[in-house]
Amino acid sequence: MDLRSLVIETILRELRLDSNEEAEIRLELAEKNLEEARDYIKKNDLIQASEKLYKAVEECVKILAQLHKLPQYEKARTEGRWWTHLLGKSARKLSKILKEPRVEQTWAIAYEIHIWGFHEAKYSIEDIEDDIKHVEWIVEYTKKTIQRLSEK
Q: Which domains, ranges and CATH numbers included, belong to the chain?
């Protein structure tokens, strides 16, 4: 876990925000990461672009897991961090619950970019730049889900 994620998780836990407030903060993080990824792609910075794309999707999976009260969300809260396997399990479960396979597919793409673009630096900008559409989709999907659930 990186320091930034640890700080964010700690702050969110300590503030004891309600579900909607936490979702809104995470959505802002996802949107910021997506915007930064676009900037890094323009600058031809593969490593940072890859990490920001991954982080945007990670935040969306966390939001959706929280809003749908998945056990993985509760486990992450209890343990004080989101393990990668909890994110993967959440994406799979969400795809089934929501009948939306793109949630799991987008997570899989983001994780692949995280490994081969960020950690291993084996991809190029050309390898990842078309994947931004998947990240844009999940950010927008998450935003609409928050809006829909807050209207209830």
A: 3-150 (1.20.120.330)
Report residue 56's pLDDT band, with 50, 70 and 90 as the boundaries.
Answer: very high
Q: Are 49 and 37 in contact (CB under 8 A)?
A: yes
Q: 69: alpha, beta or left, given left = phi > 0 and alpha = psi -120 to 50? A: left
- Residue 69 structure tokens: 């009260």
Distance, in Å, from the CA atom of 84 to the CA atom of 78, rounded to the nearest integer, reads 15
Could you please report the per-residue DSSP string of 68-133? TT-HHHHHHHHHTS--HHHHHHHHHHHHHHHT-HHHHHHHHHHHHHIIIIIIS--S-HHHHGGGHH
Kindly state the tokens that stand for 128: 């990842």
d(CA 59, CA 62): 5
**Mean pLDDT, range 12-17, rounded to an integer:** 62
Do you know the residue count of the chain? 152
How far apart are alpha carbons 71 and 65 in whole angstroms?
8
Q: Give per-residue pLDDT as tens, 94-104.
A: 999 999 999 99
Structure pTM? 0.89
